[in-house]
Amino acid sequence: MIFVKDEGIIIRSMQEADILFFTNAFIQLGWSDRSQRLRQYFNQQNDLERMVLVAQNSQNPVAYLTIVPNAKIGPFANKQLPEIKDFNVLPKFRRQGIGNRLMECAENIAKENNKYITLAIGMYRDYGSAQRMYVKRGYIPDGSGLWHGEKNLDPYEKCCNDDDLNLYFIKQLQED
To answer: Is the pLDDT of residue 69 over 70?
Structure first.
C-alpha cells in the first residue's frame, strides 16, 4: 500500500525485498545482522500486528519505522495506545526531511483511530537528532522517568546506557 507519493519520496508498506536491502545496508554500516528482526516485522505486518512504513526515493528504500497498535512494555503497556518503534533513516539520507515525513505519515495513520501516539527514545548521543525531532514535533515526556527494557528504573539505580535505556514520550493527535 502506498501512503504518500510526492516530491521524489514514496512512503509505502514494507515489501519482502526490503528485508535484504536494509540488512545489507546495515551490515555495510558495521551494524549487526537485522534480517531476523526485519523478517519478523514483515510477518507481523502481514498478520496486522504491526505497520511498517518504508520511505523510498526514486531508486531505493532509505528509511523505515514501525507502529504497533498497542504498546507492549513501558508506561503505556496495554493501554490501547499505538507506539512508534524502531525508526531508522539510513545515515546518508538524514537531515533531508525524510524522517519528518515518515513521522507525519505515521501520526496521520494513528490519528484515524487514536487520540494519542507514543514512543520511546534512546538516551545516548546517536539518538540526539531523533530526540530533537520528537520534541519539535510536539512529543512530551510522560513523566515516568527512565526505563531499561521492561523495567522502570528507581532513583540512583545503576544501568547501562544501551539501546534498552529509554525515555517515553506521548503526543496528542486529536483535541478533546
So the answer is: yes
